[in-house]
Write a structure and sequence with these properties.
It is globular, with a radius of gyration of 22 Å. The N and C termini lie far apart (about 70 Å). The longest helix is centred in the C-terminal third of the chain and has 27 residues. The chain has eleven helices and two strands; from the N terminus they run αββαααααααααα. Helix 8 packs parallel to helix 10 and helix 9 packs antiparallel against helix 10. The chain has a two-stranded antiparallel ribbon. The chain has two domains: about 90 residues, no CATH class; about 180 residues. By secondary structure, the protein is mainly alpha-helical.
Length: about 290
């Protein structure tokens, strides 16, 4: 049965006319009926696949495993969400007025960080951002840039690396008996929490790779410790909100086979309980 033209156009648009499995632009694509029923033309049953991925979803493959309907459904959901979020950013994003060469260079290398497939180069860029942060004091601008590129950062390993690296921005805050916290530090902590929440929820909704979700939760827990040391309740509450948001998105469409994700949900629950206790203890001790 022929797919109605309006539905076909809508599905192709929602997928950016790109295969939802390999995500490689410019390839010829077809529309695949996920459940194998050519009469079921509901948009939720239609996936955009390139010729190569389509053959892997439909052909007999001997000892090789073909893409199951459940796999294709996940790829479709993840890719359509990523396309929607990128378009939202493009519509809403207002270019910042860069004031000096440091901000121009920071923006450039953050964009390079998002697309490079070389992990060693990604580490070098993060170290370079550290130098700019220390010597040029541009941490707020860098954190805002990192927030913007979250949907464009390629690969779960790199996303986890970025989540872990954000703690570098607050190594200079060992406690109030050593260093006083400044208004700029509080603003940067809020920015970092926003990045980690966005990183964790984006990952939980798209590829659902455990590593970056775990890294986001761990970094949020460390930021909570800093907020607790300085008795900053607004920061503690922001961390708790971020952890709960990641936990909520990780729970959507959860399947029993996702053992690691289930473990991360339990970890988020345990974190919330532990951090709430630590926050209450700090309040009582003041």
């Amino acid at each position: 049965m022929t797919i109605p033209k309006p539905i076909e156009a809508s599905v192709l648009f929602d997928n950016d006319h790109t295969c939802c499995i390999c995500n490689k632009k410019g390839k010829d694509v077809q529309i695949h009926h996920i459940d194998g029923n050519n009469h079921n033309n509901g948009p939720s049953n239609l996936a955009v696949l390139c010729l190569e991925c389509h053959s892997k979803a439909t052909a007999r493959r001997g000892f090789g495993r073909k893409y199951s309907p459940l796999e294709v459904e996940k790829y479709k959901r993840n890719w359509e969400f990523a396309v929607k979020e990128r378009r939202k950013l493009l519509r809403q994003h207002v270019p910042r007025r860069t004031k000096n060469w440091v901000e121009i260079e920071t923006a450039r290398i953050v964009y390079e960080l998002a697309v490079t497939k070389n992990m060693e180069r990604a580490k070098e860029i993060l170290e370079l951002l550290d130098l700019y942060r220390v010597f040029e004091r541009n941490s707020g601008f860098a954190l805002d840039q990192l927030h913007d590129v979250v949907p464009f950062i390629s690969g779960p390993r790199k996303r986890a690396l970025v989540a872990e690296h954000l703690l570098h921005y607050f190594w200079h805050l060992p406690g109030p008996e050593y260093v006083k916290i400044k208004d700029k530090d509080i603003k940067d902590l809020k920015r970092a929490i926003r990045v980690l929440e966005w990183m964790g929820t984006f990952e939980a909704t798209t590829s659902r790779a455990p590593r970056p979700i775990r890294a986001s939760l761990d970094s949020l827990a460390e930021i909570f410790k800093t907020a607790n040391l300085y008795a900053k309740r607004e920061l503690q509450d922001a961390v708790m909100k971020a952890i709960k948001a990641i936990r909520k998105d990780a729970s959507v469409n959860l399947e029993q086979s996702e053992v690691e994700i289930i473990g991360l949900i339990e970890k988020a629950d345990a974190l919330v309980t532990r951090l709430e206790g630590a926050s209450d203890a700090t309040q009582r001790g003041r």
